């Protein structure tokens, strides 16, 4: 036989594949190992599965250079101890279960042919459908799986990742893994193999065939808890509860290209979701929370943006859990916590084809493209008004892709900060007063809050140059949505619920009547320990304008400026001028008369 008879899935490698068909090559047989069709050959054996997980998900790439690392092992001599350790870069995984089901028959033309692997003819028939076995063909009617005693449930793997099934009859089997929560198959979650496992060995130019009735296979898993990331997108302005809050989700696809291209059938049910706390957010424009999805991309480049719609690349749904417990039933809302709404981005067949195509084009060892979902939420009035709710934790997760015809895995909802960002809030207040007397509080002062100091500085500069704050080109428009005015007492009517832990820049954009604008940028980092009754407070003194009502002079009143005394001095001056003119004219006339005499 050319290669080991272990087909597809987690144990398909270049030395573990059916290469030639339909014939089964028969070189010299290793001593102590009988072919199953020979007289007195064993009729039963055992299967040992060693379950391994990849140690570091961050090093995972979509395309592997080759599949030459043996995932199935057969001893050179019957009874020889086999290696049950995990390959380099992997470690054992406990509590993983498998179902081993014997294939009852295969389709040959229009006939169902019952398999008997004690006969050489059955091996030839299997060799003729290897490529179809690799495609997991039971739904297409290529194979018929057995029932009853042909179905074996293996015990869960132990601390060494090992589980053994004894007294297994010779035959062709399908092995299906129940993928543990939080994990995905590193290669495939199901595969076909024969018992005995048959492998060619070449040593010193001599080729022998080994029939292993107690094989060890090592399907591998990858921890998916770090395969999805979520963060608050600070490229958008966010200073407090009046602003929209933007999130970006990035998620890896838990499938790799091994030996052959992926298709949409390898990516069944792949979906990404946001589990938003229902009470914290409000429906944008009364459209439903599904309208929070702003864009969906896969990879980079001009073709990275995907199109929404059932006839396009993805659909978006929003379903709330109004019960008091997490949803445990299978379906799109499985694992949804009480009081949360799942905003699900589910890829259509067309979308999965695009994803598969890009994954197939990734060079060996290169980083795989990822799904990117951008969302934007308006914070609800209930959260804005609450003086006790001071945090918003927004979860995320995804439904791992699986092969068509295999059981859909449970959703991955990591309980780590990297996938469920928490935004904390505190309270901000101002103290607006007359610089000459701090006890005199000022109303009517308007403020804005910036998240960028450079933009705050530009705003104050424009105000000094008398640019109107609401002018079309005013740099003050780069402020957040906050726009509060002080009331009697020199404070906002209520402290502002602002983001805690981030530096904010507060600018006065309009002074109280009769006072000069305070052209400064005040910096503050609001603490999450502040309360509505005990907020962080910024002091803003204002310099009064002196003179008549509406006057515009700082600090000092100049004597007689604009007063009645000025008029008296003016009249006296005019009298002196008139007298001087009269005397001048009279003297000039007298001089002329003397000259004419």
UniProtKB/TrEMBL annotation:
<dbReference type="InterPro" id="IPR041033">
    <property type="entry name" value="SpaA_PFL_dom_1"/>
</dbReference>
<dbReference type="InterPro" id="IPR013783">
    <property type="entry name" value="Ig-like_fold"/>
</dbReference>
<feature type="compositionally biased region" description="Low complexity">
    <location>
        <begin position="63"/>
        <end position="76"/>
    </location>
</feature>
<dbReference type="InterPro" id="IPR019931">
    <property type="entry name" value="LPXTG_anchor"/>
</dbReference>
<keyword id="KW-0732">Signal</keyword>
<dbReference type="Pfam" id="PF17802">
    <property type="entry name" value="SpaA"/>
</dbReference>
<keyword id="KW-0964">Secreted</keyword>
<feature type="signal peptide">
    <location>
        <begin position="1"/>
        <end position="19"/>
    </location>
</feature>
<dbReference type="Pfam" id="PF00746">
    <property type="entry name" value="Gram_pos_anchor"/>
</dbReference>
<dbReference type="GO" id="GO:0005975">
    <property type="term" value="P:carbohydrate metabolic process"/>
</dbReference>
<feature type="region of interest" description="Disordered">
    <location>
        <begin position="21"/>
        <end position="41"/>
    </location>
</feature>
<protein>
    <submittedName>
        <fullName>Peptidase</fullName>
    </submittedName>
</protein>
<feature type="compositionally biased region" description="Polar residues">
    <location>
        <begin position="21"/>
        <end position="31"/>
    </location>
</feature>
<keyword id="KW-1133">Transmembrane helix</keyword>
<dbReference type="InterPro" id="IPR048052">
    <property type="entry name" value="FM1-like"/>
</dbReference>
<feature type="region of interest" description="Disordered">
    <location>
        <begin position="63"/>
        <end position="86"/>
    </location>
</feature>
<feature type="domain" description="SpaA-like prealbumin fold">
    <location>
        <begin position="428"/>
        <end position="531"/>
    </location>
</feature>
<keyword id="KW-0812">Transmembrane</keyword>
<keyword id="KW-0572">Peptidoglycan-anchor</keyword>
<keyword id="KW-0134">Cell wall</keyword>
<feature type="domain" description="Gram-positive cocci surface proteins LPxTG">
    <location>
        <begin position="558"/>
        <end position="592"/>
    </location>
</feature>
<feature type="transmembrane region" description="Helical">
    <location>
        <begin position="562"/>
        <end position="585"/>
    </location>
</feature>
<keyword id="KW-0472">Membrane</keyword>
């Amino acid at each position: 036989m050319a290669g080991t008879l272990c087909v597809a899935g987690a144990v398909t490698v270049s030395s573990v594949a059916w290469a030639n068909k339909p014939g089964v090559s028969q070189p010299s047989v290793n001593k102590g190992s009988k072919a199953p069709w020979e007289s007195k050959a064993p009729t039963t054996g055992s299967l040992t599965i060693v379950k391994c997980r990849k140690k570091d998900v961050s090093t995972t790439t979509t395309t592997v250079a080759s599949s030459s690392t043996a995932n199935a092992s057969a001893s050179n001599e019957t009874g020889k101890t086999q290696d049950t350790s995990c390959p380099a870069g992997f470690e054992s995984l406990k509590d993983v279960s498998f179902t081993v089901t014997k294939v009852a028959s295969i389709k040959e033309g229009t006939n169902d042919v019952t398999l008997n692997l004690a006969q050489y003819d059955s091996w030839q028939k299997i060799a003729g459908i290897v490529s179809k076995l690799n495609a997991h063909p039971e739904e297409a009617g290529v194979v018929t799986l057995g029932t009853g005693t042909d179905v074996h449930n293996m015990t869960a793997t132990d601390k060494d990742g090992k589980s053994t099934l004894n007294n297994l009859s010779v035959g062709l089997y399908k092995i299906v893994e129940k993928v543990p929560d939080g994990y995905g198959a590193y290669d495939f979650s199901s595969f076909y193999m024969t018992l005995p496992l048959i492998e060619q060995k070449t040593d010193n130019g001599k080729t022998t065939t080994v029939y292993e009735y107690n094989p060890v296979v090592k399907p591998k898993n990858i921890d998916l808890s770090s395969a999805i990331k979520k963060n608050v997108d600070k490229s958008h302005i966010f200073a407090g509860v009046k602003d929209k809050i933007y999130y970006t989700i990035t998620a890896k696809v838990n499938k790799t290209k091994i030996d052959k291209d992926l298709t949409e059938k390898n990516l069944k049910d792949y979906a990404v979701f946001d589990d938003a706390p229902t009470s914290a957010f409000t429906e944008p424009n009364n459209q439903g929370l599904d309208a929070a999805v702003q864009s969906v991309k896969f990879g980079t480049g001009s073709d990275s943006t995907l199109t929404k719609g059932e006839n396009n690349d993805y659909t978006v749904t929003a379903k709330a859990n109004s019960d008091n417990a997490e949803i445990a039933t299978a379906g799109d809302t499985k694992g949804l916590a009480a009081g949360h709404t799942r905003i699900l981005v589910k890829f259509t067949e067309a979308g999965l084809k695009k994803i598969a195509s890009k994954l197939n084009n990734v060079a060996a060892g290169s980083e795989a493209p990822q799904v990117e979902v951008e969302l934007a939420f308006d914070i609800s009035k209930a959260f804005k008004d609450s003086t006790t709710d001071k945090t918003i934790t927004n979860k995320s997760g995804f439904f791992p892709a699986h092969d068509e015809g295999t059981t859909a895995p449970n959703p991955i909802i990591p309980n780590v900060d990297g996938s469920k960002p928490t935004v904390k809030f505190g309270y901000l207040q101002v103290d607006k007063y007359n610089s000459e007397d701090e006890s005199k509080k000022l109303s009517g002062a308007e403020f804005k809050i910036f998240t960028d100091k450079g933009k705050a500085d530009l705003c104050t500069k424009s105000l000094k140059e008398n640019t109107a704050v609401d002018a079309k080109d005013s740099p003050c428009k780069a402020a957040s949505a906050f726009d509060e005015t002080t009331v009697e007492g020199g404070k906002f009517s209520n402290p502002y619920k602002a983001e805690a832990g981030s530096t904010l820049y507060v600018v006065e954009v309009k002074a109280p009547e009769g006072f000069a604008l305070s052209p400064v940028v005040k910096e503050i980092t609001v603490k999450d320990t502040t309360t509505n009754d005990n907020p962080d407070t910024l002091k803003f003194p204002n310099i009064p304008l002196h003179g008549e009502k509406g006057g515009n002079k700082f600090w000092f009143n100049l004597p007689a400026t604009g007063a009645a005394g000025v008029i008296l001095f003016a009249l006296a001056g005019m009298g002196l001028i008139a007298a001087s003119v009269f005397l001048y004219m009279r003297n000039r006339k007298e001089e002329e008369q003397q000259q004419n005499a």
